[in-house]
């Protein structure tokens, strides 16, 4: 058994004991415990081990029986735009430039305000919690509202307040945007759940000067910097044409790459650019389904893993994907790279699951806090109702987790020691109210964008 | 309203009325009815239309309220090996030839008997019904047992008894196999739910002479012929080397292609071979996730759709995929071809949903019976608990169905007018017994194959 110290009798009092079931720790030994238990106190894991040992040495205020279940670290969704859940299905089957310039940006200008962001965030939080995600990295406007909603619901967030070189829904110019970011970071730094960040949208929407300022801000405030990077071939072509280098190399030359950076997509990075990302300690987030749906391309994940780059998985926003199920990203990541590499041994089930947990934590620079079930880490875990036959894997438990487990198999979610979902019931959110509010917003979006209402949009 | 005849008062008595909700008919006009209803009598659809009209003219013995739900045709899983559900996770992250020759075939020789097939089929049926699949095209051994289990559970099947040029679990030689197939076809032809078929495994496991005999059998008995075709690049190379032509062209030259054929995979067909498939009226089944996971390649689906080929979707067996969720195949099909074509407009949400319904029915040559909600067709439908915001689509109901709906959203399944699933409860299967039996088989497989038991297989 692994414990903070040898526990003398009497048993140590703890807040919560999750006891029984298969515990998939994702620790450095990738230990899987057949009948395990986890003791939690003060929001942290204080013991992980065989059930009989942990139960003998801890006395819990609350006990969750996980017998016959599987217990995993809470999943890490490394890239999302949670308020955009209200825009789900707004524009499908379009290419990214059309989609962004002609649909998303105008729809945002017409609809996005603080109340919209709150409603969209609450809707997304319900889906994330139900799906076993305990940490989400977000980038959007009014991120102060996202942070308040997320902290109130009890989910962990690395939240980037967006910076973009045109008038945004929450700031008319660069100075206002930077002031807003500073206020946001000052407000949330040190919070147990929320890590505030600066989020320059992308190298093609933020000028070099402002990118350099963003890096300086990140250094000065010790906060992460979240960015979209090398997502499309078009972006790379334009970067070469306008700046003389592909985006990653350009950011390296500008001095913007750093250990605080979380770069989403990185589809079109060249080999030498992957080396640059590694050298600078940049975290990368792979969004396989979004990249497929927008026909952006396939990130060179096998080459990233070969370098032991910190690469996680993300869903991207629901306007592009169109859901927040990280399980589908895990499954797709494992399958997609086999296809593209023409090698079914590439990105094993275990590697895919690592990207959603411990490697995903590294991508967000949060690996000291989350991503595995280990003593001293934040108590973020999910309990799964896996089919009995998957509990008896023929080859590997990771196969069952990656290829056969769904978001709907998540029974319980604990974040920072707090139970947010119990037996599929949301404890920190009012689901009927959230759904009613979301529906009202959808009616408003339909009206403002002059769309045909409801299913009749499909009528011939 | 569409009805068999003008209904005079008093209201026509029917068995079942599904009333309310958005009805996605998939009829030739792709009609979507905002507040619809479907009347069912004798296992067939006798009326589809606006709720108030259908309710006014029909008096039902039983009524299912679908208000606030979405009603769709039951999904069509065009390619599966249902008993292999017991082998889920047996061997992942291997290439197809290794997987088949060194793992699956030996595991089958060691484990597969009639009782295994029954247990595996029941387990698969539970998953299929829960996932909204009303018709499945299967190919395996002991298909008589599959048919009995499927008919007993009330699911519709196009079931192919396998033919293969080496001793199989249910027949030692070709003559025994052909006799078994004849008995199987004679037993089931004319059954309301089961369409029996002959299933030569593939051109690389069945010799030309036996393929020609299988075609003659199919012609003589008027039964479908199910086959794996052009699945891997290796298969095509070997076909060229040994037979002087790629597999589809070779079968055309042999005279084996026909309107009764259902060909699974067809990943590596050349343009002229797609023309041959079209000319001969062959149905094709695309299995995107299996083809990705085994790194087999990507079927030329956009070129198939351009020809209006009858192409459906399948999960393949759970030993390769590793689940029976057709929803993930629909979602993957829509996304994968965008990526491969580098065009996000390719395989629209509507086209993907068609492949799982009406076009999938054409692929199985069952389009006169199933695949859409139309008067005269078999009463096969699913009711979905879609999120309220997806019920108010911003662009298209097909987007919500394809990109955001999951197997777990299926509430109710009706096949041939019989309710097999109601509010997520299986009515025709004993789920605890099925799971206990499956677990016992898994223990036996672990023992026979000398695998490390349970999660400890992952221990370092």
Give structural notes.
With 460 residues, chain A is of the alpha/beta class. The first copy, chain A, has 2 domains: 2-73 and 371-424, Urease, subunit C, domain 1 (Roll); 76-179 and 206-363, TIM Barrel, CATH 3.20.20.140. The first copy, chain A, has 17 helices and 20 strands. A 7-stranded mixed sheet of chain A has the order 4-3-8-17-18-19-20, covered by helices on one side. Chains A and B meet through β4, α10, α12, α15 and α16 of A and β4, α10, α12, α15 and α16 of B.
Q: What structural class is derived from the secondary structure elements of chain A?
A: alpha/beta
Q: Considering the protein shown, what is the CATH homologous superfamily of the largest domain in chain A? A: Metal-dependent hydrolases
Strand order of the largest sheet of chain A: 4-3-8-17-18-19-20
CATH domain topology of the largest domain in chain A:
TIM Barrel
Number of helices of chain A: 17
The amount of helix of chain A comes to 25-40%
Number of strands of chain A: 20
At CATH level 2, the architecture of the largest domain in chain A is Alpha-Beta Barrel
Low-confidence stretches of chain A: 456-460
Q: Would you tell me the overall average pLDDT of chain A? A: 94
Could you state the oligomeric state of the chains shown? homodimer
Largest beta-sheet characterization of chain A: 7 strands, mixed
| Percent of residues in β-strands of chain A | 15-25%
- Which pair of chains has the greatest number of interface residues, and how are they split between the two chains? A-B, 88 and 88 residues
* CATH hierarchy, class of the largest domain in chain A: Alpha Beta
Specify the overall morphology of chain A: globular
Radius of gyration of chain A: 22 Å
Count of all domains of chain A: 2
From the N-terminal CA to the C-terminal CA of chain A, the straight-line distance is 65 Å
């Amino acid at each position: 058994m692994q414990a903070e110290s040898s526990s003398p009798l009497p048993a140590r009092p703890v807040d919560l004991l999750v006891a029984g079931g298969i515990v998939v720790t994702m620790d450095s030994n990738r230990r899987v415990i057949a009948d395990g238990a986890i003791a939690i106190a003060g929001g942290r894991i204080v013991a992980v081990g065989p059930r009989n040992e942990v139960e003998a040495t801890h006395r819990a205020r609350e006990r969750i029986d996980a017998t016959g279940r599987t217990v995993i670290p809470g999943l890490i969704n490394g890239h999302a735009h949670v308020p955009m859940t209200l825009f789900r299905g707004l524009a499908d089957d379009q290419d990214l430039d059309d989609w962004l310039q002609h649909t998303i940006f105008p729809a945002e200008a017409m609809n996005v305000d603080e109340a919209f962001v709150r409603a969209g965030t609450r809707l997304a939080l319900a889906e994330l919690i139900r799906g076993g995600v305990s940490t989400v990295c977000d980038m959007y406007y009014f991120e102060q509202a996202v942070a308040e909603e997320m902290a109130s619901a009890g989910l962990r967030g690395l939240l980037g307040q967006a910076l973009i070189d045109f008038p945004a829904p929450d700031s008319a110019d660069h100075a206002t945007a930077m002031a807003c970011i500073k206020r946001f970071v000052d407000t949330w730094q040190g919070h147990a759940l929320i890590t505030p960040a600066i989020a320059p949208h992308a190298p093609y929407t933020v000028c070099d000067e402002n990118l350099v300022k963003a890096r300086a801000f990140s250094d000065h405030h010790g906060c992460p910097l979240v960015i979209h990077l090398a997502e499309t071939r078009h972006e790379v072509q334009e970067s070469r044409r306008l700046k003389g280098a592909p985006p990653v190399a350009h950011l390296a030359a500008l001095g913007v790459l750093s250990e605080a950076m979380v770069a989403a997509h990185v589809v079109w990075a060249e080999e030498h650019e992957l080396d640059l990302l590694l050298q600078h300690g940049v975290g990368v987030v792979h969004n396989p389904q979004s990249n497929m749906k927008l026909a952006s391309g396939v990130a060179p994940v096998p080459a990233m893993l070969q370098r032991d780059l910190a690469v996680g998985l993300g869903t991207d926003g629901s306007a592009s994907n169109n859901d927040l199920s990280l399980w589908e990203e895990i499954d797709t990541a494992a399958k997609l790279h086999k296809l593209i590499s023409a090698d079914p041994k590439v990105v094993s089930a275990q590697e895919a699951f690592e990207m959603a947990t411990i490697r995903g934590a590294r991508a967000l620079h949060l690996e000291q806090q989350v991503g595995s079930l280990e003593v001293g880490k934040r108590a973020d875990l999910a309990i799964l109702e896996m089919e009995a036959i998957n509990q008896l894997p023929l080859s590997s438990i990771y196969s069952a987790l990656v290829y056969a487990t769904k978001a709907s198999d998540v029974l319980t979610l604990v974040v920072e020691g707090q139970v947010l979902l119990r037996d599929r019931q949301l404890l920190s959110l009012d689901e009927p109210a959230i759904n009613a509010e979301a529906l009202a917003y959808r009616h408003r979006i339909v009206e403002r964008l002059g769309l045909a209402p409801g299913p009749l949009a499909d009528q011939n």
